[in-house]
Here is the input.
Amino acid sequence: MVTGIYVDWGGHKLKLTWMRDLMPERELITSVHAFCFHEGQLLMVNLNDRGWDFPGGHIEVRETVEACVIREVMEEAYVTGDCTLLGAIEVNHEENPLWNPSSPYPKVGYQVFYRMDITAFLPFDAGFESSERMLIRPEEAANYHKGWQKGFDEIMGAALGKMRI
Here is the structure.
């Protein structure tokens, strides 16, 4: 299913469209994120600059998309696991009068989302940008994630639909 919603990110009007099972061209991917699960519970990390969130970040030079999500989850949550692509959110600035052509982000870019089934918890070191991790019931995610938007409901549905039995 493809649906679009409009959001205001710091005065920037953006259209966000969830596209299930989509893997965009690498140069259009602005970030990768993981909905990580262990025994039916969702992992959240407390990021120093934005509060409770899902692990994720930016792709490094010569890094694959999947290698990036595995690295980011390790750095922020200190867990490992098996990844499954969920899809991507198209972040469209075409109606954003504040978008700048010299922005590091493309006019139409993508945030890619994976589901990770956690296979190992390592000692939490807080050595990168997160201060703690916790497991919650998936339906509680919006209570913790301060930037929760309707599109995340669709991603969560996709993640829960790909649960391994």
